[in-house]
């Protein structure tokens, strides 16, 4: 019980700081590379401190690859969502309720219009998340990699944000998109893209990893 309690605290605080600090970096800099470094750097730092997931898509991949059980999956995701929600509340206090707090929306750079454009955004998020989660599953499979894993994971996120940032914002994390959208309501209509896309990507990464 103590281990699961410690893990849930890690998921809560790690997700809170990931969403809070990464979003502030994106909002204050206005530059994609700084947003990427903000999220990627914070993820690496939190991984060194806590060693958690901070992302339902990662937890799904871990569950499918049999690294965690069903109860852990559910409680981890709950803790991640609460952490992201608290972070988003602080962001709303800082920047204004209903204002831009770095919630994800599909860019006009994505081909198509209306539903087709959103569906294309979903596919982009699924592919980016697949790569992200597969990288995590591979680098964390050996305990010998513990000292370098956070850097590899954080750098991987930096690359993916640079690649997809001008398309979907590169969420690759359902709670990182859902929680801010609750306070930045203009993003709510597209939040399904960022729940389904990353969740599918995490699921496929876990299935693919099992076949390696």
From TrEMBL:
Its main location: membrane. GO terms for molecular function: water channel activity. Pfam families: MIP. The chain crosses the membrane at residues 7-26, 32-52, 73-95, 115-136, 148-167, 187-209. Belongs to the MIP/aquaporin (TC 1.A.8) family. It is found in: Cell membrane. It is a multi-pass membrane protein. This is Channel protein, major intrinsic protein family. Keywords: Cell membrane, Membrane, Transmembrane, Transmembrane helix, Transport. GO terms for cellular component: plasma membrane. It comes from Acholeplasma brassicae.
């Amino acid at each position: 019980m103590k281990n699961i309690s410690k893990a849930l605290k890690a998921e809560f605080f790690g997700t809170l700081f990931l969403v809070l600090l990464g979003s502030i970096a994106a909002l204050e800099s206005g530059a994609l590379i700084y947003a990427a470094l903000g999220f990627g750097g914070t993820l690496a730092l939190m991984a060194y401190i806590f060693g958690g997931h901070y992302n339902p898509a990662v937890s799904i991949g871990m569950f499918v690859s049999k690294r965690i059980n069903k109860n852990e999956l559910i409680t981890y995701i709950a803790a991640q969502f609460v952490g992201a929600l608290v972070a988003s509340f602080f962001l709303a206090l800082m920047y204004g309720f209903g204002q831009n707090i770095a919630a994800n929306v599909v860019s006009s750079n994505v081909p198509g219009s209306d539903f087709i454009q959103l569906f294309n955004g979903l596919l982009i998020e699924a592919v980016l998340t697949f790569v992200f989660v597969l990288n995590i599953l591979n680098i964390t499979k050996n305990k010998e990699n513990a000292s370098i894993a956070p850097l590899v994971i954080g750098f991987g996120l930096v690359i993916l944000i640079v690649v997809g940032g001008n398309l979907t914002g590169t969420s690759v994390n359902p709670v990182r998109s859902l929680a801010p959208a609750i306070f930045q309501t203009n993003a709510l209509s597209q939040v399904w893209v960022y729940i389904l896309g990353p969740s599918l990507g995490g699921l496929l990464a876990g299935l693919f990893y099992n076949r390696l």
